[in-house]
Amino acid sequence: MAGAPVPVLLVTGFLGAGKTTVVNHLLAHAGGRRIAAVVNDFGAINIDAELIAGASDGVVSLANGCICCTLEGDLLRTLATLLRRDPRPEAILIETSGVADPADIVRNLMDPLILREAPLETVLCVVDAAAPPGTMEDPLLRAQLRLADVVALSKTDLADEAGCARIRAAVAALRPAATVIEAPQGEVPLLLVLPDDPARLPTPRNPARRDPGRSGPRAERFETLSWTAEAPLSIPLVQAAIGRLAPRLARAKGVFEAVQQPGRPLLFQLAGGRATLVPMGEGAVREGLPCARIVFIAEVGRISPEEIRAEMERSIAEPSDTRNAGTARGWSP
């Protein structure tokens, strides 16, 4: 694995904070640099890997587990494999699941062999600036913030001035050493989180030793429940089903084809009590995948697979159901 060190950028953040949007922006503005992306989704269906730009080229998917616990060995093997690529990547970006405690991941990255070849350059924590007031007290989010070098405030266009100020104050109190930036539409400058010269010595922000501290909340707090369908869905029926499920969900995301818009998949996301439904771009149709594939994340015991299945099966469209509900970016479930 000899060669110049390959810096690692670790992107963390709570469920629905906007990590994938940030990752897409960084990859789209890589300036020709070879950046390998490792994407971890907490569930059997890795929706995030589908949403990363160029998902078929240079993106490694780690699914059906959280890399802070059940996939530790997979992560280290994946990094070793990436470092053996020819040509070698110039940087490695790791997007964690929303239930990951970065302390455990940082501890894994301190493996001497990995540290020498792929030093951890930056821990970037994405925080939803429009999150409800109590969100900043969540122990998992606080664990993510405690190791952040850079904090990116996402969804600032949805937050009022007082809300942004409240989030900034909470971040400053918990992690005063972090650089805090606003990142509408995921706009994080690449040079802020990755060096322009990979061969340079570690900076004060990237010391040779990091102390990840004690482990925080584990992924056992949350569980994922996946649902798929082989037939298109009805947009208004999906909205109705999500409205009934939303109060007991921490997060939901997925892709489905709608009878109202045949041939063009829709991206569905539920985060922070806000649901969005937007058309996906060209090339979004994936051969061999179900028409609908949605992952639901909830605290353990809050909702059962049977309840989700019963609700979502009501959203499968009848052939005659072509009611035009539109595809508004957001609705209140």
Automatic annotation (TrEMBL):
One Pfam family here: CobW_C
InterPro entries associated with the record: CobW-like_C (IPR011629), CobW/HypB/UreG_nucleotide-bd (IPR003495), P-loop_NTPase (IPR027417), Zinc-reg_GTPase_activator (IPR051316)
Record-annotated CobW C-terminal domain positions: 222-316
Top-level taxon in the UniProt lineage: Bacteria
Compositionally biased tracts (Basic and acidic residues): 208-219
Region spans: Disordered: 199-219, 313-333
Function field: Zinc chaperone that directly transfers zinc cofactor to target proteins, thereby activating them. Zinc is transferred from the CXCC motif in the GTPase domain to the zinc binding site in target proteins in a process requiring GTP hydrolysis.
PANTHER family: COBW DOMAIN-CONTAINING PROTEIN, COBW-RELATED
Protein name according to UniProt: GTP-binding protein
The species this protein was found in: Roseomonas populi
